[in-house]
User: Fold these one by one.
Assistant:
Number 1:
Amino acid sequence: MEPMMELKNVGFSYHSVAGETPALSNIDLVVQKGDFLAVVGPSGCGKSTLLSLLAGLLEPERGSIFLSGKKMTRAGAGAIGYMLQHDHLFEWRTIEKNVLLGLEIQDKLTPEARERVFDMLKAYGLYKFRKAKPSQLSGGMRQRAALIRTLALSPELLLLDEPFSALDYQTRLTVGDDIGKIIRKEGKTAVLVTHDLSEAISLSSRVLILSRRPATVKRVIPIGFPMEKSALERRNCPEFSDYFNEIWKELDENE
Ligand code: ADP
Ligand code: MG
């Protein structure tokens, strides 16, 4: 089967008057359809840079990125949904108008598309709040709204950059669990950047460990929990701590 996304020997540096900051080096990576890849690595190693390249927001300096077998272009990046750390909801728009925004801009707001988005609002407990402004919602609700806005465009590939980092621990567990369910239920492919190892292990099917900057692929660890287990259930499985220790050790050797 053709991989959804493939990176071949990708390298990237930032250039400024102060000089060159190499961020990524020799990245080889394959993301298959239905994969949920978690990306972990030391702070400042190049995780967000990698995600920006996958999103088509940055172009690789060396090497190439292929999306469904074709060389990645900005236009091709339309099949990709990108959710940043900050939820970027517009405060003056209602939740309904926020989640429909992408469809509106892309001129895809058909009655069917609207209904599908309303179904997601219902399923994720936001329908009652559709006329509310983002400031009236809790952090967890806002993040769910941001995710629905991203899913509304039916992206084949979801890129999430520390999407839960603004949430308190309790909410983070619940929203993480929800989002894991949503992504599995909708059959999406996802790449999640996180600095929370437990989150990476409980949500993903593989954990990519990056080295210190410039990031190289240190290891990819397959996570073998049964599909039907929720993120919260996975945290209580006996293998969970084995995965945790293995990844922890790998990261520790970076320091
Ligand atoms: P991470 O997400 O892993 O914390 P980033 O990918 O954001 O790391 O950044 C990797 C490195 O590139 C860091 O040293 C950061 O300071 C640098 N960097 C990030 N964005 C820019 C930029 N726009 N210009 C110059 N340097 C940058
Ligand atoms: Mg980052």
Number 2:
Amino acid sequence: MALKGAAIMKKLPKTNCKDCGLATCFAFAMKLATGGVKLDDCPHLSVEVKEELDAAMAPPIKLVTIGSGANALAIGEEEVMFRHEKTFFNETGIAILISDKESESDIEEKIRNIKELDFERIGQKLNINLLALSFESGDKAKFEALVKNAYETTDFTLILISENTDALFSSAFLCADRKPLVYPITKENMSSAIPKLKELGVPAGVKGGSIEEIISVTSELKDAGIEEMVLDPGSKDILAGITDQTLIRRSALKKGLRSLGYPTIAFPCFMYQDSFKEALAASALITKYAGIVVLSHTDPWFLFPLLVHRFNIYTDPRRPMTVDEKVYEIGNPDKNSPVLISTNYALDYFIVSAAIEETNMPAYLCIKDTEGLGVMASWTSGKFNGEAIAEFFAKYGMEDKVKHKKLIIPGVAKKLVAELEEELTGWEIILGPLEGSDIPKFLSEEWKK
Ligand code: SF4
């Protein structure tokens, strides 16, 4: 929302008629600026004013959706240059390149590898989003067969890559309902591409030899009624990639340049033959500011760090990741099972619960709501002290769940022992290991003793 309330106010009828449900036009303007009401809530705006305000309030980087259904990928609509200013919203799509020059068995293996990827971090599945299908064989029928195969045998969102416009659009028609990204649309092919893009309703991957060239192509496409575009400045290496991506984002956010106000795509797969360099380029471009990165490898060692990096970049730095407060029953604990406690900072929960699961020993894991703060931070702020934990025990009836009255607390919380001995009468407080990775050994040896 680029427009401020005072600027909106100038465009309103200023009759204070209250038909919008608010007392004054000024109140309406202020609420509109923060997204609290919609333009349509005022029935007295002329079509021209509505269009003007609509355009002025549009996000500086357009939200573009590629694909359809549950696997659709939304990219763009970012509002800041730096993650710590607010957050990044729509995470970079990760695509795997498949060429129609590859053998059938190689293609099959690649697709199988991607389908079988099963990475999880802090309870979140980390996935590949797209297949980037590339026409390199010179045989249109072969490319169409590759597209048809990917369309029919996978649910992945598709990017179609072909310098041959005929092959590009004939294959796009085969999977139009999947809403593929059609790439590249250039100054050379855009006149013939525009009618087909409009007919298909698919997003255009705009490629330019320079930023100026991209501006001229997006401007023409926009004038022709094409709204969804993804930009490729054609960067050849990491440095050029970061420079081009930064220039595009800065121009859109800081200069309000609408013709660059679209998400971007980058091709680490074409920048380097060396897989380490490709991974490095991908990592840099996920950070700054690619909407999609296209990669050539499917090895877990190559993909997992990039998926985790993307996950980290796109979590909200203002809000720690949390899990619900409750007593988690791991396995089928009974009255003799150990009782452990930790905070609701997601990483704490997943480390401790995974460690308990590793022992195959049923246990009660008490997770106290600390608003996502870890053990020591929440102790100092009074959210994980003796009194708060005693209240938790009373709330969840821990007295009745076990007969041994022993509580294992995180090893870093030594200062909690005396507080808990005072607040939890009759309970023995046991200091657990300092590292989560030592919990299995601790439970198997110390607890069993
Ligand atoms: Fe003002 Fe429109 Fe609201 Fe009436 S309906 S008070 S004109 S904003």
